[in-house]
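FORM 12-B: Structure-to-Sequence Request
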């Protein structure tokens, strides 16, 4: 998923950005919990929407790295000792590996909450109308002061009438 987004960045002429994104994300492999938040903040700043699949995998607990070469992979359970994995930055080949050949990228509840907020804000300012609608609907479920502030910030920039109506309902 992220490989396709990084490839899209390459095509637009942002090869340096795609390379920086990949290098920064790769730092998640083996990072201490205290370092992961800084890496996530950096990824958000340089990657924007393209890091959404990576952030979602972190929140779901399905982002691992291979012990042998520290390559980041997305995982899905197959059975007790096997996982189906696909590379984050390569051609996304799907293969089965033993769970003991992988390590999970470290997260905790505070970090997951922080990442969920980042996902919500990134989708709120997305170019994709469906993503923006989904974000506003998610904000409707939790109208905290932080979420209301984000909606107020996005409201003047919104051009789509249906998303704008949802924002007005929330506010």
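FORM 12-B RESPONSE
SEQUENCE OUT:
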């Amino acid at each position: 998923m992220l490989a396709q987004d990084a490839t899209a960045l390459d095509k637009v002429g942002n090869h340096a950005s795609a390379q920086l994104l990949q290098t920064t994300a790769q730092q998640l492999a083996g990072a201490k919990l205290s370092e992961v938040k800084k890496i996530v903040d950096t990824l958000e700043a340089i990657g924007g929407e393209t890091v959404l699949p990576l952030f979602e995998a972190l929140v779901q607990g399905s982002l691992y790295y291979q012990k042998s070469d520290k390559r980041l992979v997305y995982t899905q359970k197959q059975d007790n000792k096997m996982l189906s994995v696909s590379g984050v930055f390569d051609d996304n080949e799907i293969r089965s590996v033993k769970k003991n050949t992988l390590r999970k990228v470290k997260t905790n509840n505070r970090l997951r909450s922080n990442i969920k907020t980042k996902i919500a804000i990134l989708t709120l300012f997305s170019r994709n109308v469906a993503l923006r609608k989904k974000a506003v609907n998610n904000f409707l479920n939790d109208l905290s002061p932080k979420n209301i502030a984000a909606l107020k910030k996005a409201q003047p920039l919104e051009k789509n009438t249906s998303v704008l109506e949802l924002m007005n309902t929330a506010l």
